[in-house]
Amino acid sequence: MEQDVLAKFKELFGGEGDIGVYFAPGRVNMIGEHTDYNGGHVFPCALTIGTYGVVRKREDHKLRFYSMNFEELGILEASIDDLKPEKDADWTNYPKGVIWAFGEKGMKVDSGMDLLLFGNIPNGSGLSSSASVEVLTGYILKSLYGFDVTNQDLALIGQYSENHFNGVNCGIMDQFAIAMGKQGHAIFLDTATLDYTYAPIKLENAKIVISCSNKKRGLGDSKYNERRSECETALAELQQVVGINSLGDLTEEQFEQYKSAIKDEVRVKRAKHAVYENQRTMKAVEALKNNDVKLFGELMNASHVSLRDDYEVTGVELDTLVEEAWKIDGVIGSRMTGAGFGGCTVSIVKDEAVDTFIEEVGKAYKDKIGYAADFYVVEIGDGPRKLA
Ligand code: GLA
After folding, report:
1. Is 304 in the pocket of ligand 1 (CB under 6 A)?
2. Same structural domain, 16 and 156
3. Are residues 190 and 46 part of one domain?
4. Cα distance between residue 117 and residue 139, in whole Å
């Protein structure tokens, strides 16, 4: 892969000078969905698939971008003196946003660069291809221009650019999971404090299988921002009767005690999900610590039901994938992962059931939805790094 992206870079931009090859992973969230902007816990991990970047600094102020995933767009140009989001700039709004965000934080880039990307994360799958590009860009800027930033800073800068340059009010989970990824481990992150611990994922005789619905979604045109503001309104209503900073501060019992303060049935459901999902995530991590993978799986299943019925972010595609998965012997747990409204599901499947899983879920999905799903058996990998 490194050789392929390097060869393409040289073909397009020439082979002279100092050329670097970098990588940042994608991520999958095991449990703790739509909790990260509610002061709750999440439990994601970085993957071994992700985004490759080949880069060389320029003498002038020009930025030249090329993606091997969107070859039809050709080379897209911009300038470090005029960084603003533009519709025609397409995917380059992500690296541009990060360069802009560094500037906002007092780290001005003083020369341009040529950047070629290739991602082997399926586009729009909900495995955070955009956050992968953001963290990759940040890591490249740090290496190329010598900025003094930690990987955690890269996560925050990536989120800042997504929120303020690309207009998506996302939480910190994706960028954090990618910037802080560790092989074989998931990250148990408290999004209220950014305290985190690494938990080894030891699945004896089982695999993590991602089922991709191939229903494309973009956070910007989804109901993501709407869910977020529903939760904010519910929090403000609860704060009239109980002193909390976020929905993540409540236990299930406290929620039941105070929920009548929320003046709308839909908002009660949204807030209920945020509270219960946070508690489920803590229980799931505890279960894993006790080697109780069965309980972990049951909590994953409960997470999906809550996202389907209370948070209402699943849809027929994700529900079909999960409900068909539940029917298969050897499936320990299955749920949608990421923002929802399309994207993919994550399942823990016993080794001997993986082939049956892919065949049967695949067939049932195609019969019901009319087009095929894709399946990936994934491994948990490290965070961003320089390859060459
Ligand atoms: C998207 C966002 C994350 C998080 C998830 C839902 O992936 O980028 O911040 O809110 O949705 O858990």
Report:
1. no
2. yes
3. yes
4. 14
| pLDDT tops 80 at residue 322 | yes
Domain containing residue 339: 206-377
> Given the CA of residue 33, which atom of ligand 1 is nearest to it?
12
In angstroms, the CA 162 to CA 169 distance is: 7
Q: Are 368 and 165 in contact (CB under 8 A)?
A: no
Q: Say if residue 28 is in the same domain as residue 120.
A: yes
Residues of the chain with pLDDT > 90, as a percent, come to: 93
CATH of the domain at 228: 3.30.70.890
Is 231 near ligand 1, meaning CB less than 6 Å away? no
Q: How close is the Cα of 206 to the center of ligand 1, in Å?
A: 26
Amino acid, single-letter form, for residue 160: Y
Q: Say yes or no: 191 and 213 in one domain.
A: no
Nearest alpha carbon, ligand 1 atom 2? 170
Q: Is the CB of 34 under 6 A from ligand 1?
A: yes
Structure tokens at 282: 């803590």
Tell me how many domains the chain contains.
2
Mean residue pLDDT across the chain:
96
Do 113 and 56 form a contact (C-beta atoms < 8 A)?
yes
Does 37 contact ligand 1 (Cβ within 6 A)? yes
Claim to verify: residue 326 and residue 346 sit in the same structural domain: yes
Q: For 255-295, what is each residue's pLDDT tens digit? A: 999 999 999 999 999 999 999 999 999 999 999 999 999 99
Write out pLDDT tens, residues 362-382.
999 999 999 999 999 999 999
Q: Do 176 and 230 reside in the same domain of the chain?
A: no
Please give the Cα distance from 210 to 77 (Å, whole number).
Answer: 35
Find the 352 Cα to ligand 1 centroid distance in Å: 32
pLDDT in tens, 171-211: 999 999 999 999 999 999 999 999 999 999 989 899 999 99
* Residue nearest atom 1 of ligand 1, based on CA coordinates: 339
| Element at 324 (helix H, strand E) | helix 316-326
**Mean pLDDT, residues 316-324:** 97
Ligand 1 atom nearest residue 42's Cα: 12
In short, whether 258's Cβ falls inside 6 Å of ligand 1 is no
Whose alpha carbon is nearest atom 9 of ligand 1? 171
- CA of 181 relative to ligand 1 center, distance in Å: 16
